[in-house]
Amino acid sequence: MPQESQALSGLGPESVLVLGGTGTLGQELCRQPPWPVVALGRKHLDLAVPSAAYKFVRQVRPRAVVHAAAWTDVDGCEKDPQLCFQVNAHSVAEVAQACRELNIPLVFISTNFVFGSLRKPSRAWREQDPVCPRGVYAQSKHLGEEAARRCPQHLIVRTCGLYGHEGRRCSFVQRVLDQACRGEVVRVVEDQWANPTWVPELAQAIWFLLRLCLRSGEHWGTYHVVNTPAVSWYEFARAVVRWSGLHVPVEPIRSHKLNLAVERPRYAALDTTKYHRLGGPRMSHTLEALRRYLAGGSSWVSAPVGTAKGVLVRRGSGSAL
């Protein structure tokens, strides 16, 4: 992606502004854009500063805004709820107000964490299902969704467990690989199900949705965009280790053993039927997407396999999307 200092000069009515541009998704959106894109990280726009986002969007007047920025440290959000709500909710309200006044679209990236049920439902969650956010992080993202809906031309894209070559160090997949490369026993929760999602496919889907809505003037709203079907994090970690050619034990544990500040959703699987009915790029089978990622020449092998050690993979301590 272009350097931010160079990209700032490219802002204008033909450009799409991507907030969170230094993150995994933000960088991938810059790799395959249908329009000129200017992607900004916190260095050039700190969403923790009240009103900063509103003033910036009003000033630059882009074609559209993709709000992909978030504070996703679930336990950290519990410790500093004021900062969490400013970044994940209030900044979205600021951007939504600016977009409404400028009559431009807003794409807000949300999370499966808005479905915080601890009981397994009879099916994957659909867009119209009532949400039940648990914890500060999930509540802040839910409020961000409500704020985004105040913009008439809005897309809310709920997703989960992002991984890709950009920003890979903070992903669940990379944490598992790092531990496996060091020869550590990888212990992962077996009682949480979700849809780990490969970022290149998610980025394609987001651009498809925005193009479709701008062209037709219809289909604005909320969409679930993930790889399917849902898997347990334990099952997914086993596939990561097996297909990477590493030989370390992957052991299941129960969620209560992690002693986290806030309990994670047990079954936060998302139903993608609504998205696929629009005829957008296909979201691969969950394990097919993982296999393609691992076969793509990623530089994840960073340490020799050594003596096994017991280390927990704490789902949610890093990226929660």
Q: What general outline do the C-alpha atoms trace? A: globular
CATH topology of the largest domain: Rossmann fold
Number of strands: 13
Roughly how many Å apart are the termini?
22 Å
Count of helix runs: 11
- Rg over CA atoms, rounded to whole Å, is 19 Å
CATH class of the largest domain: Alpha Beta
Q: Structural class per helix/strand content?
A: alpha/beta
CATH superfamily of the largest domain: NAD(P)-binding Rossmann-like Domain
Poorly predicted spans: 1-7, 299-321
CATH architecture of the largest domain: 3-Layer(aba) Sandwich
Give the helices and strands as they follow along the chain: HEHEHEHHEHEEHEEEHEEHEHHE
Reported for the largest beta sheet, the result is: 6 strands, parallel
Strand order of the largest sheet: 2-1-3-4-5-10
What is shown here, in short?
By secondary structure, the chain is of the alpha/beta class.
